[in-house]
C-alpha cells in the first residue's frame, strides 16, 4: 500500500512538473488544452488583455498546425471567432475558418477563406456583405448569378447596367427601379425615362408614366426640346383620354402636322399595382429603410398563377412569400376535396412569410380561386438578401420575434 501511495505521489509530482508555471500564456493555455481542461483554458484566455491575446496568437501561429488546432476549440468557446479562424490558416480547414470569420464579422477574410476552399458563391456573398461590391460582382459574373449581379450593379450606382440584366431576366419592376436611379445629368437619362414610360404603360400604369414624364419635362430644358419625349407625352395623354392636351403638345413639334398613332384610351386599360406598397405593409418589413426596402423589392418576381392551381401545399416545405396583386385564393385545412375552406384572400394579402425565416412544413393548403398575379420572394432569394443586408436582417428578425412573442402571449391568455 505504501509503495502504491508513493507511486501515486510520484505521478502527481510528475504532472505538476509538466505544468509550465513560468511559461508564456500560449504555453499555459496549450498545456491546459492538452489536459482536456478546456473550460479553465477558456477562462484564462478571456481574462487576458487584448495585447496578451494578440501575443498568444502570434506565438501560436508560429507553431505547427496540429498544435494550433488544439487551441481552436478554446478560442471558439471564448468567442474569439476571428482568432480561432486565424489559427486554422494553413491547416486545410478553410471552410471552417471562413465560417468563423463570418461569426466574427470579418467578411473580407471570410471571403478569402471561402475562395481557398473553392466555394465561390459564399465568397461572393461575403464580399458583398463586406462592401467589396466590385470583387463580389466579378465573382457573381463568373458564376452566371445574374440576379446577384444586378443587385451589386444597382448598389454600385450603375443603374443602366443593372437595368440591362433585369431586362434579360424579365423582371420588369426591378428594371423600372434600376432605371429610376439614372441621374439627370447622365447622357442616357432621357432614354431611360422613355424606357420607364414604355414599361409602366405596358404594366397598366400609364398615369404613373405620364407623371414621371411631366416631372422630367419640368426639370429639363433638354427634354422640352426632344421630339421623342414630347411625342411620348402626347401618346400618354391620349392614353389617359386627354386628347386636347395631346394635340397641344403635338402642335409644338417640328412638322406639327404629324400625329401620334392611335392608342387605346385609359378606359380600356386596367391599372395594375406594382405591389411595392403591399410588400412594404407586411409587418416584418416595417422597420426597413427606403434603400433596403427597394433592394428587397428588386428581389421579388412577378408570377402568374392559373385558376385552380395550388399556390401552397399543406405539409410541403415552405417555398417563400407570395403577395397577391390581382385575383383571389382560397385557404383550406388540407388538400382533400372535402377539406374545410378557412378563408378567401385577395389583393394585398400575403402568404408564406414564416417560411422566409423558419424552415418548416406549410400549415395550410392554398389554391387559386381565380387567375392570380402575385409578387414572389423565394426562400433562397430572401436568405441571400439577409446575408448581404445585415442591418435589414437585424430589423426583420427583431420584428419577427416581437410578433411571435405577441402570438404566444395571445394564446396563453
Automatic annotation (TrEMBL):
InterPro entries in UniProt: cNMP-bd_dom, cNMP-bd_dom_sf, Env_Response_Regulators, RmlC-like_jellyroll, TPR-like_helical_dom_sf
Residue span(s) of domain Cyclic nucleotide-binding: 284-403
Gene3D superfamilies: Jelly Rolls, Tetratricopeptide repeat domain
Record's GO cellular component terms: cytosol
Comp. bias regions, Low complexity: 1-14
Annotated segments matching region Disordered: 1-25
Pfam families, sorted: cNMP_binding
SUPFAM superfamilies in UniProt: cAMP-binding domain-like
GO MF: DNA-binding transcription factor activity
SMART domains linked: cNMP
Coiled-coil intervals: none
PANTHER family hit by this protein: CRP FAMILY TRANSCRIPTIONAL REGULATORY PROTEIN, HTH-TYPE TRANSCRIPTIONAL REGULATOR ARCR
Listed name of the protein: cAMP-binding protein
Species this protein is from: Hyalangium minutum
Amino acid at each position: 500500500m505504501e509503495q502504491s501511495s508513493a507511486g501515486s505521489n510520484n505521478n502527481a509530482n510528475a504532472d505538476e512538473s509538466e505544468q509550465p508555471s513560468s511559461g508564456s500564456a500560449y504555453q499555459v493555455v496549450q498545456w491546459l488544452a492538452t489536459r482536456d481542461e478546456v473550460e479553465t483554458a477558456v477562462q484564462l484566455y478571456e481574462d487576458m488583455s487584448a495585447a496578451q491575446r494578440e501575443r498568444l496568437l502570434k506565438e501560436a501561429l508560429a507553431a505547427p498546425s496540429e498544435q494550433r488546432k488544439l487551441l481552436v476549440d478554446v478560442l471558439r468557446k471564448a468567442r474569439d471567432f476571428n482568432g480561432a479562424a486565424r489559427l486554422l490558416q494553413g491547416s486545410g480547414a478553410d471552410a471552417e475558418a471562413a465560417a468563423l470569420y463570418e461569426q466574427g464579422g470579418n467578411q473580407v477574410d471570410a471571403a478569402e477563406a471561402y475562395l481557398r476552399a473553392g466555394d465561390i458563391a459564399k465568397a461572393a456573398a461575403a464580399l458583398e456583405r463586406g462592401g467589396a461590391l466590385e470583387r463580389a460582382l466579378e465573382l457573381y459574373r463568373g458564376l452566371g448569378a445574374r440576379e446577384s449581379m444586378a443587385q451589386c450593379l444597382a448598389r454600385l450606382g450603375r443603374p443602366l447596367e443593372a437595368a440591362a440584366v433585369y431586362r434579360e431576366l424579365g423582371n420588369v419592376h426591378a428594371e423600372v427601379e434600376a432605371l429610376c436611379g439614372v441621374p439627370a445629368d447622365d447622357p442616357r437619362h432621357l432614354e431611360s425615362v422613355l424606357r420607364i414610360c414604355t414599361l409602366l404603360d405596358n404594366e397598366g400604369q400609364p398615369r404613373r408614366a405620364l407623371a414621371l414624364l411631366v416631372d422630367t419635362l419640368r426639370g429639363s430644358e433638354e427634354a422640352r426640346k426632344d421630339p421623342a419625349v414630347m411625342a411620348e407625352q402626347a401618346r400618354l395623354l391620349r392614353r389617359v383620354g386627354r386628347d386636347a392636351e395631346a394635340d397641344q403638345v403635338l402642335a409644338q413639334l417640328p412638322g406639327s402636322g404629324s400625329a401620334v398613332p392611335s392608342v387605346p384610351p385609359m378606359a380600356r386599360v386596367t391599372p395594375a399595382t406594382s405591389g411595392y406598397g403591399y410588400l412594404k405593409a407586411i409587418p416584418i418589413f416595417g422597420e426597413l429603410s427606403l434603400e433596403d426596402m427597394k433592394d428587397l423589392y428588386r428581389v421579388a418576381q412577378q408570377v402568374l398563377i392559373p385558376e385552380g392551381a395550388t399556390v401552397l401545399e399543406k405539409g410541403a416545405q415552405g417555398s417563400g412569400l407570395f403577395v397577391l396583386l390581382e385575383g383571389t385564393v382560397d385557404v383550406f385545412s388540407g388538400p382533400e376535396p372535402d377539406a374545410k375552406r378557412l378563408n378567401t384572400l385577395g389583393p394585398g394579402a400575403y402568404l408564406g412569410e414564416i417560411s422566409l425565416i423558419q424552415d418548416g412544413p406549410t400549415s395550410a393548403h392554398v389554391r387559386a380561386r381565380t387567375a392570380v398575379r402575385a409578387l414572389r420572394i423565394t426562400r433562397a432569394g430572401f436568405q441571400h438578401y439577409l446575408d448581404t443586408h445585415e442591418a435589414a436582417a437585424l430589423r426583420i428578425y427583431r420584428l419577427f420575434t416581437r410578433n411571435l412573442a405577441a402570438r404566444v402571449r395571445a394564446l396563453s391568455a
